[in-house]
User: Fold this.
Amino acid sequence: VKVVFHSAGLDFECWKRLLQRQLPEIDLVAWPEIGDPRGVRYAIVWQPPPGLLTALHDLEVIFTLSAGVDHVLDQPDLPADLQIARLSDAGMTPQMVEYVICGVLHFHRDFDVYQREQHHRRWQPRPVLESKERTVGVLGLGVIGAAVVDSLVSLGFRVRGWSRSRQTRTGVATYHGPDGLWQMLAACEILICLLPLTATTRGMLNRELFDALPRGACLINCGRGAQLVETDLLEALDTGQLRGALLDVLEPEPLPQHSPLWRHPGVRITPHVAAQTRNEQSVTQIAENICRHEAGQALLNSVDRDLGY
Ligand code: NAP
Ligand code: GLV
Assistant:
């Protein structure tokens, strides 16, 4: 079985070795040197490179090398019957938990404020709030969001979580749907976005949402950059409606040199590193899915193209 692979950032030879160890009958070939494209039914990609979708007429499944699939679904030449399977967790969840906890504690313990004070050589202690006095909200209670809310609960925070369908989590006040969002936001002093980018979530981190948060709230975005309206964020930071933002994802990436976000004192930026997939776990998931598809079974972690995730 020939499988086409394309990823700018990953080591092809390592992937070939790992996949062949699990499925010796697989012939992994690196795009674009793939030989005869006829009969190729599987592709493993971060994003389909130009020409791949038109060259592979017999493609049945795209395996994305990511949890988010927005960059695959927005391909104009994506055939309607092509199945897409994403990675789920693949080693990312504990990394995202670390990142978010780091960001939440940064704001909770006023490190952002002290950083600015230090700049002015000011020694100005502030009262310390206990975690149980702080409300943290998480948008998205999927594989990653669920682990994040659990870790926040274990640190003693008052935690609220929001999803599309109704979810329950021990120790978490959960909300769902558009109405639930506005109810949830009113108390969230720190808001974390772990949503997929879809038609519904694009641009939702905007002025209206910031205004629904308590004054001086903080934002952590680890979903996708296009969920954030950058000008609304800058305005909210400048008026004090928001106190600070930690952004791991931006639009576009890399963030252009001229972006005001680089130098804004209320903004911290990391270059889309909150959580990275692990090769072994990713290969295991894809190998299992190839076996399932070959056996006529439904794919795991298959993407609902109507919902966009
Ligand atoms: P997931 O398991 O599919 O979870 C998605 C969550 O978002 C679910 O709880 C879903 O609700 C909720 N959701 C989707 N659309 C919604 C809407 N319109 N309204 C309310 N809730 C909505 O995804 P995941 O694996 O946790 O990953 C989430 C996202 O994190 C990815 O899509 C990606 O964009 C981002 N990510 C970023 C990094 C990074 O390094 N920055 C790394 C990995 C992932 P239901 O529970 O009702 O389905
Ligand atoms: C990373 O951002 C992912 O979606 O896996």
Remarks:
- The longest strand covers residues 158-163.
- The two ends are 28 Å apart (CA to CA).
